[in-house]
Design a protein that fits this description.
Oligomer: single chain
Number of domains: 2
Number of strands: 16
Low-confidence stretches: none
Radius of gyration: 19 Å
CATH class of the largest domain: Alpha Beta
CATH topology of the largest domain: C8orf32 fold
Helix content: 10-25%
Number of helices: 5
Length: 273
């Protein structure tokens, strides 16, 4: 499937900032299940300082705000071709070793609610894949999808307590439980094309766990499936903070507002001559 993506994010501040430095993770890379044919990221109100691939294999653009701007716009445009691999990414080829993805972070620290979740999941599964499909379904049942109850600083334990959250919370609960079970797991951010529309609500998040017979396998807990050809992977890490589309520091008193426009549509692939 060939997907054409246009993604624009506008930040506006109550007054001009004296300085700002941002890490932008909005560049998908060619890898298992996807081929990036073209991709461009442009900035209004910021200058491009450097680009690099971080220890998770994410493409990062480092930008600085210029001329005491009161607004910043980031526009991404590109074409990505995907295939249906049923969430199977395969063997581990990243810079960080597998054991690194068993680490606990502030957002994915297990507590009593995670212990209860794991106990409820139980044992006796035919294979590892069945166990994690069951975990995904259990999380979706326990934590209903409800925007506005959580934010980017909400931990997996807190979201379990709220019994509500969004895709970010579902993914972090999954990786928390998977690590508690002794499996490497990671958080993934990216794009998802919903079939009934071109204009999408926002970027998406899901989780991947490493299974001995399949390698890395993805689970979209919020939608109850493994990622298919409608998904584009952008960044991965231990939790949301490793994959945040825009993160950094800003100086100056200000109120921030943000608006997002995201369009994803399937287009016809060009025949190669």
């Amino acid at each position: 499937m060939q997907l054409t993506i246009t993604h624009r994010t506008d930040y506006r501040y109550g007054s001009a900032l004296s300085y700002g430095l941002q890490r932008v993770r909005l560049c998908p890379l060619t890898g298992p299940g996807q081929t990036v044919h073209s991709w461009d990221v442009s900035f209004e109100g910021a200058g491009r300082e450097a680009e690099f691939v971080d220890h998770h294999g994410n493409h990062v653009v480092l930008t600085s705000l210029v001329d005491e701007q009161a607004q910043l716009s980031i526009t991404c445009k590109g074409v990505v071709e995907t295939i249906a691999n049923y969430g199977v990414i395969g063997k581990h080829t990243d810079y960080a070793p597998l054991w690194y993805f068993e680490r606990v972070t502030n957002l994915t620290s297990p507590g009593s609610r995670t212990e209860t979740l794991v106990e409820t999941l139980g044992t006796g599964f035919d294979d590892e894949l069945s166990r994690f499909h069951s975990l995904s379904a259990l999380i979706a049942d326990k934590v209903v999808y409800e925007p506005g109850r959580t934010d980017v600083n909400t931990t997996a334990e807190a979201a379990l307590g709220f019994e509500a959250g969004v895709c970010q919370d579902h993914a972090q609960i999954f990786v928390t439980a998977a690590r508690r079970l002794g499996f490497p797991a990671r958080y993934v951010s990216g794009y998802l094309m919903m079939n009934d529309r071109i204009e999408q609500d926002a970027t998406h998040a899901w989780a991947e766990v490493y299974l001995s017979d399949l390698g890395w396998v993805g689970f979209d807990i919020s939608n109850g499936i493994s990622p298919d050809e409608r998904y584009v992977r952008i960044a991965m890490g231990l939790d949301y903070r490793d994959t945040a589309p825009v993160a950094g520091m800003r100086f100056g008193e200000h109120d921030e507002s943000m608006s997002v426009s995201l369009e994803i549509q399937q287009t016809a692939a060009q025949t190669q001559q």
